[in-house]
Write a structure and sequence with these properties.
The protein is mainly β. It is built from 2 helices and 11 strands; from the N terminus they run ββββββββααβββ. A hairpin with a 5-residue loop joins strand 6 and strand 7. The model is unreliable at 188-197 and 203-209 (pLDDT under 50).
């Protein structure tokens, strides 16, 4: 029986933005978006979203917990421009103004199966002390007009930044038809098996006997 040759492959991203560690701040929320090349299109799910506001619990770690779900599927003919997840965290300052507490980005994992990522966060800083004081007083901290610039890198070399906090994300990745197009994203092992019937590759995909 003849099999059709696919013209594109699929990448399905499931997971969640689990939480964050910002020792100096509380009552924070997170915005996210996916950034990818021109050859990539979203076929289902959401490419951007916003979590609920969360505060630190009584646990010893004092972490911020969101457990906000991620679920989207991309279609492409080339791995160039592989999607990245961009996260930006916001919260109130001492005057109650909503200000950015950190930006960060990570590539979506290339291999099928479960993955965990800890994303280092940073914030832009004013160059001069007077600018810093004025920004603090007026509640207008330096921030990017478009957070997607974090994943692009263009112009980042002239931006002064300061490291601040971490965001933890979990992924479960599935791919379809990548090997048929000549792209091998992982070793051939029982833990990373591609179904002959569905074409999906995932660590949770049952092995056909």
């Amino acid at each position: 029986m003849a099999t059709s040759n696919p013209s594109a492959f699929l990448l399905t991203v499931n997971g969640q933005i689990e939480g964050a560690n910002f020792p100096e701040y509380d009552n924070l929320y997170c915005k996210y978006c996916f950034v990818h090349g021109h050859d990539w299109t979203s076929t289902s799910g959401l490419e951007e979203g916003i979590t609920q506001i969360t505060c630190k619990g009584s646990q010893s770690s004092r972490k911020l917990i969101w457990n906000f779900p991620l679920e989207t599927t991309f279609k492409s003919t080339s791995p160039s421009g592989w999607p990245q997840l961009v996260v930006s965290v916001y919260g109130p300052d001492v005057f109650g103004n909503d200000v950015v507490r950190g930006y960060g980005a990570t590539h979506i994992p290339f291999t099928p199966g479960p993955h965990a990522r800890t994303i280092p966060m940073f914030v832009p800083e004013s160059t001069w002390r007077l600018q810093k004081f004025t920004s603090w007083l007026l509640g207008r901290r330096p921030e990017y007009t478009d957070p997607k610039v974090v994943a692009q890198g263009e112009g980042r070399e002239v931006t002064r930044v300061r490291s601040q906090g971490f965001v933890t994300v979990s992924f479960h990745i599935m791919t379809k038809d990548m090997k048929k197009l000549g792209y091998d994203t992982g070793p051939a092992s029982p833990a990373n098996t591609q179904s002959a019937t569905s074409g999906w590759s995932t660590e949770e995909q049952p092995i056909n006997m």
